[in-house]
Design a protein that fits this description.
Helix content: 10-25%
CATH superfamily: Hotdog Thioesterase
Number of strands: 5
Shape: globular
CATH class: Alpha Beta
Order of helices and strands: EHHHEEEE
Strand order of the largest sheet: 1-3-4-5-2
Strand content: 35-45%
Number of domains: 1
Structural class: alpha+beta
Number of helices: 3
Radius of gyration: 16 Å
Oligomer: single chain
CATH topology: Thiol Ester Dehydrase, Chain A
Length: 134
């Protein structure tokens, strides 16, 4: 998919593709430090990735495909976690546009994302709604 997409022109159902990400310890440590995440033992002893890092990866993958959507106010964010992401794992994030609407003169775009592990197990599902700023 081209990186020059105009979000106004994308129809509902647009497939944003799949992004492959390797979850490395340095990135997790940097995230946990910047967010002052208090459950450090989950990273150090169990190798579990902080939940906020997981859905931020999903949102970022959508914005890479639809760069014009990046200037947005986040209106709603829903997440359903099935299994924790582990440090050292490879994940696959797939996204699509599932709705677009106008409310009170504002343009809304709704994205859905699904994150899978290397075995195809669903780790996380998210639904994100942003107000596009013209």
């Amino acid at each position: 998919m081209s990186n020059n997409l105009d979000p106004k022109e994308l129809p509902v159902g647009t497939d944003l593709g799949t992004k492959e990400i390797f979850i490395d310890k340095e990135a997790v440590d940097n995230y946990a430090k910047s967010m002052q995440w208090g459950a450090r033992e989950l990273i150090d002893k169990l190798g579990i990735v902080p939940p906020g890092m997981t859905f931020s990866k999903q949102i970022g993958s959508g914005f890479e495909k639809v760069p014009g959507q990046y200037v947005a106010i986040w209106a709603k964010s829903e997440h359903e976690f099935f299994k924790p992401l582990k440090i050292g794992s490879k994940i696959f994030i797939h996204g699509k546009i599932v709705d677009k609407y106008i409310k009170r003169g504002k343009n809304y775009t709704v994205f859905e994302f699904e994150t899978l592990d290397e075995s195809g197990n669903v780790l996380l599902k998210s639904r994100e709604t942003g107000i596009r700023i013209e």
